Amino acid sequence: MPSARPVPSALRPLVAAAAALVAVALVAAGSLASLATPARALSPGVVLTSDFESGLDGWQARGAASVSTTATGARGTGSLLVQDRVDPWDGALIPVTDVFEPGTTYTIGLWLRLPDGAGTADLRVSVQRDLDGQPSYETVTTVEGVSSQWRQVTATYTPGLFDTASLYVESVSSPADVMVDDVLVSGVRYTPDLSLTPVADAVSVPFGIAVEPQDLLGGRGDLLAHHAEQITPGNQMKPDAIQPTEGTFTFAAADGLVDWALEHDMRVYGHTLLWHQQTPAWFFQRDGAALTTSSADQALLRERLRTHIEAVADHYRETYGEYGTPGNPVFAFDVVNEVIDENQPDGLRRSEWYRVLGPSYIADAFRYARDAFGPEVQLFINDYNSEYPDKRAPYLRLVTDLLAQGVPVDGVGHQLHVEVGRSVPMIEDTIEAFEALDVTQAVTELDVSTYRHEGEQWTTPPADRLLEQGYYYRDVLDMLERHASSLESITVWGLEDSRTWLRSGAAPLLFDGALQAKPAYWGIVDPSRIGTTPTPTVTQTPGVTPTVTSTPGVTPTVTPTPGVTPTVTPTPGVTPTVTPTPGVTPTPGVTPTVTPTPGVTRGCRVVYTTNDWNTGFTAGVRVTNTGTSALSGWALTFSLDGGQRVTQGWSASWTQSGARVTATNAAWNGSLAPGGSVEIGFNGSHPGSNPRPTSFALDGVPCAVA
Ligand code: XIL
């Protein structure tokens, strides 16, 4: 599989892995053609391949479309041609009921193009899952601006439960004919070792794990059920999940988790009724305009808060029976989350809640919650960094004040998002400080990043850091055990390292991405084995192995997987080639002036999305060339005006000078055809708020911002 271009260093292992996967396929079945039938026999690597060299390989028409094979291939001499499409969902499908296993992550690679002269179209790779007669349609990836050039697409997908499922190619809106080739689906099902001592048995306080729906399935579900005795929904009970628009309540995702907890005899810790993040904007608007501090607007926001809390409380009572009875596993709820800001004179965060209502909203939220849930659900306040003395003081003051006013606060949560080495005595001081109050406490979101600071970066933590993490978990748990009688529960924020909310490589949890126990697990369960038990250090997401196979003259497009941060380590000798664009003379620090070239229009479109947390964020930037000529080498510039810093970027080479950020193409994504897009991204830190950049320029040409 010779590559036409130098392969960027970070992709070399992926190319090797892709080659290995293809090799598995070839060896297992003799020839690609005979792999037409989806076969589990190929596991653990490749589960499906179709090359259309000698037939349809099991592919069928979807909807009104018709399918046939052509004599043009991406790499061989045949491909699948989809014609007679009328609606966007007309396309080509292959049944994957016997190929996919719920909860396993698959890497889906394929090649797409339109026939000659068909212009461009935005295509989609999707999965239809049917469960109990209900279909759900899930986008695996959207591929913008597909033209008559072959485009390689790689994306990952983790199926949920299904009775039947199919993988299909459709479009966003265009009814254009579509060509498909060289489909390769791979996935690895990891099996946890269920002979290990459950963490819950080693901890005298009820042990919980924060979960996402994928964590309940397959081997991950087995691991969760084995070790936890309580779960916290990671996102599904937040205001944006439960009431995305006013009066529309969507409980299905959360109920899936609660049902599972019930089936597995576990408790549910609810999270969260009020927060400044993941709360829809409508809460704070009237007819689209921001609420003011008028008494009418204050009354409206209070009413919305009460309605929201009552709807949640009523739902779980109506669905599972009265709180405190065996059918209802919900035993606690975070009522308010992260309301402290130690940098404010009164120690309270300046959120929209605070802006409209002032400090009173906190007591109101607890009173509404007590009225709605009754006495059986423990009502918590929850915050991060509570171990730092500066934050501990206003937290303690607030809870003391609330209790003095008779506000029904039952518990104080300490998130404990920490890194190896954060002072354990400092954490203990905080727990002891709250022991003086009439409250219970909980560790609500424990994770221990192996990164000590932003400057560190790796794909897999060094072995000694993983050992250190093991000792750190031991020390934290030893300390917590001394305060067991003050603690309602200890929850870790995630099941295994491939799905942490922290940046890639942080590896903050007890199990690695292959579901194997890390030294961190032994730190809790049997510290004598921290250093003696060989522990795999696989932390990558199962199955995330983009198939990067180059055809001379074709630039492979590697679509980054959400949540997976490819680490691009510059290697001497592999310098991204930046070909200067005619007419553009870049001057350092100055926005280049663009001299128009007759007959050539230049333009770009940028979609900038972020996922924010306390003081960090992940940004995704999709850049589309909307001009009439192809770019070979490009540079995107924009400003981060809120004091944000880029800490780690991917799919481009990233530099920051003051507020100004420049992303220059990587070696493999410099060519940008008209209509073509690249997706790049970075992790950043922010000082508390994260204003979006308002303008972007590609090679100095201002971009439309979507
Ligand atoms: C995180 C989730 O884990 C992520 O999936 C989501 O994108 C952002 O929120 N403090 C909290 C949690 O209280 O709700 C946050 O959860 C992590 C920080």
Secondary structure layout plus pairing:
Blueprint: H1 12-29, E1 46-50, E2 60-62, E3 66-70, E4 79-83, E5 91-95, E6 106-113, E7 121-131, E8 134-146, E9 151-157, E10 164-171, E11 178-187, H2 199-202, E12 207-211, H3 218-227, E13 230-233, H4 239-242, H5 252-263, E14 267-274, E15 285-286, E16 289-290, H6 295-320, E17 330-337, H7 352-357, H8 360-373, E18 378-383, H9 389-404, E19 411-414, E20 417-419, H10 424-435, E21 440-449, H11 463-482, E22 487-492, H12 519-525, E23 604-612, E24 616-625, E25 631-632, E26 635-639, E27 645-650, E28 652-657, E29 660-665, E30 671-672, E31 677-685, E32 696-698, E33 701-702, E34 704-705
Parallel strand pairs: 12-13, 12-22, 13-14, 14-17, 17-18, 18-19, 19-21, 20-21, 21-22, 23-34
Antiparallel strand pairs: 1-11, 2-5, 3-4, 4-11, 5-10, 6-9, 6-11, 7-8, 7-10, 15-16, 23-24, 24-31, 25-30, 26-29, 26-32, 27-31, 28-29, 32-33
This protein binds (3S,4R)-3-hydroxy-2-oxopiperidin-4-yl beta-D-xylopyranoside.
(3S,4R)-3-hydroxy-2-oxopiperidin-4-yl beta-D-xylopyranoside binds next to loops.
Question: What would you note in describing this structure?
Answer:
It is a single chain. The protein has twelve helices and 34 strands. It is α/β, with parallel strands linked by helices and 706 residues long. The chain has three domains: 9-188, Galactose-binding domain-like (Jelly Rolls, Sandwich), CATH 2.60.120.260; 200-530, TIM Barrel (Alpha-Beta Barrel); 584-705, Immunoglobulin-like. Helix 6 (295-320) packs parallel to helix 8 (360-373). The longest helix has 26 residues, at 295-320. 47% of the residues are buried. The structure holds (3S,4R)-3-hydroxy-2-oxopiperidin-4-yl beta-D-xylopyranoside (XIL). (3S,4R)-3-hydroxy-2-oxopiperidin-4-yl beta-D-xylopyranoside is lined by residues 234-235, 337, 415, 445, 501, 611, 613.
